[in-house]
Design a protein that fits this description.
Layout (H helix, E strand, L loop, with lengths): L10 H7 L3 H23 L9 E5 L5 H10 L7 E6 L2 H14 L3 E5 L12 E6 L11 H10 E9 L8 H11 L16 H10 L22 H10 L12
Parallel strand pairs: 1-2, 1-4, 2-3, 4-5
This protein binds S-adenosylmethionine.
The site of S-adenosylmethionine has 19 residues, from helix 2 and helix 3.
């Protein structure tokens, strides 16, 4: 059965996670840090030249696409971006901004593990903070990145090393569930081994890979609402427990 993070979710969490509200909550909780990672990624590669064909893979609401477009004009007026994700709410948010702004972005619903693009399509393929969410511990998505990238093209893939915000959620989850340990992710991505392993298995040569680390952070002055939104958005990680919820 497919994993359903909303199964048994309390109404307070559903109010945040359903429909367009989810995009706003995502932007208010993880948006700053994913965007900072995306911006850092773009500093690691030469400026994107005119004529580039770029894949914003697992694009969410288009963090990477938006950054590329905000930086590229007028240096690279002719880029074409293909933005793909499996979440219709994120996709429709991006699609409506694409239409409003006439951006050179084609948005489509595609699994990162089975892309419809032909081999050797992209000059750049960027998967920002998403590979660890894909099936087969990221390997199938990594293979698709390799298959769809032109020879000599640039791929950027990243994952979390440490999730400082998860610790308070873990403490709350464990103390409200009689000490039952919060499940650890089945694969640990935090030492960088898994991400390099799948990229190598997908066909990227070790000598062509570069490993980099970045630290990002966000602060809030909303000390009540900020943590509450983070908690309700991410607490489903451990599965929602039945019973009374505050
Ligand atoms: C943490 S968000 C990052 C989104 C975006 N790349 C950014 O930088 O804001 C992870 C994204 O991966 C998408 N995702 C998860 N599994 C996926 C899959 N198998 N194929 C495509 N997208 C997937 C989710 O829908 C979500 O939009």
């Amino acid at each position: 059965m497919a994993y359903n993070p909303l199964a048994n979710a309390p109404k307070q969490a559903l109010a945040l996670l359903e429909g367009q509200g989810m995009v706003a909550v995502y932007e208010a909780t993880g948006g700053k840090v994913t965007s900072d990672f995306a911006a850092h990624n773009l500093t690691l590669i030469p400026p994107i030249p005119s004529g580039s064909i770029i894949h914003d893979n697992a694009c969410g609401a288009g963090t990477v696409s938006r950054l590329i477009l905000s930086h590229s004009s007028p240096a690279a007026p002719d880029v074409k971006i293909h933005a793909t994700d499996i979440d219709p709410v994120f996709l429709s948010t991006l699609e409506s901004d694409v239409a409003k702004n006439s951006w050179p972005v084609e948005v489509s619903n595609q699994k990162a593990e089975a892309l419809s693009f032909p081999d050797n399509t992209f000059t750049h393929s960027i998967t920002n903070i998403a590979i660890f969410m894909t099936a087969s511990a990221g390997l199938d998505a990594a293979k698709e990145i390799h298959r769809t990238l032109q020879p000599g093209g640039v791929a950027i893939v990243n994952c979390w090393e440490a999730l400082v915000w998860l610790f308070p959620i873990k403490l709350v989850a464990e103390s409200t569930r009689g000490g039952k340990p919060m499940p650890a992710p089945p694969i640990s991505w935090n030492d960088g081994v898994q991400i390099q392993k799948i990229m190598a298995e997908a066909g990227f040569k070790k000598e062509n890979m570069r490993v980099d680390r970045a630290e990002v952070w966000a602060k809030t002055s909303d000390l009540r609402g900020g943590p509450r939104r983070v908690g309700r958005f991410w607490a489903g990680w451990a599965g929602w427990a039945g019973g009374r919820r505050g």
